[in-house]
Specification:
Blueprint (H helix, E strand, L loop, with lengths): L5 H12 L19 E2 L3 E4 L2 E3 L9 E6 L4 E23 L4 E4 L4 E5 L5 E5 L8 E3 L5 E20 L3 E6 L2 E6 L18 H12 L1
Antiparallel strand pairs: 1-10, 2-3, 2-11, 4-5, 5-6, 5-10, 7-8, 7-9, 9-10, 11-12
């Protein structure tokens, strides 16, 4: 296997992960796929609001603990960057707008009041998003946008606090691409290693 096979594997990931708007299996949770926000998005840390090129593994951000049902500081274990990913715009009845990839995870509040995860491409009008410990926003529409370079973090709680256009909100983080490390230490940069992992995922 070599770099020439990376294209077909990427196509598989797109089909399985929800990276594309019309993915066939948007709930598979495939790893290493952009579940991110645009480069204009900042993250709240103990060092203040940071850009994508300023935050680093080891920083802490405010996340939401689904078990304790409260916000608290959580460690950032990794920062991810991807080029030219599909994007959507989430609009809420309260007037907020959030830009992210279709597979980006959000905190969904169910009818029973429980909080869990949902991806942007699974959102429908009237669904409720937890955007802070005490604030819930109501989805009114999800619109397809042009592709953009994107980024995200992985945190211990699976959530983090972001800011776009002076709007502050809780959101889900990227699933750990490091799961691919089981195929080789060079999983970040070597297409052959990524393909090896992908073949195991197919099985």
């Amino acid at each position: 296997w070599g770099a020439s096979q990376f294209g077909p594997l990427k196509a598989l990931w797109q089909n399985e992960s929800g990276w594309r708007w019309n993915a066939e299996n948007t709930s598979s949770g495939a790893y290493g796929i952009p579940q991110c926000v645009d480069l204009e998005t900042r993250i709240l840390t103990q060092r203040g609001w940071l850009r994508h090129d300023e935050v680093a593994a080891g920083d802490e951000t405010i996340g939401y603990d689904l078990v304790a049902r409260r916000s608290q500081w959580t460690r950032i274990s990794d920062v991810h960057h991807y080029a030219q990913a599909d994007m959507v715009m989430i609009e809420t009845a309260e007037g907020a707008r959030f830009r992210c990839t279709p597979g980006h995870r959000w905190l969904l509040v169910t009818e029973s009041g429980e909080t869990g995860f949902v991806t942007a491409d699974q959102l429908r009008p009237s669904m409720r998003l937890r955007i802070s410990e005490t604030v819930v926003a109501h989805v009114s529409a999800v619109q397809i946008r042009e592709q953009a370079d994107v980024w995200c973090v992985t945190t211990d709680l699976g959530t983090w606090t972001a800011e776009q256009d002076e709007q502050v909100f809780l959101t889900g983080n990227s699933l750990p691409g490091s799961k691919m490390a089981s195929a080789g230490k060079d999983w970040r940069t070597n297409p052959a290693t990524q393909i090896k992992w992908g073949l195991g995922y197919i099985k």
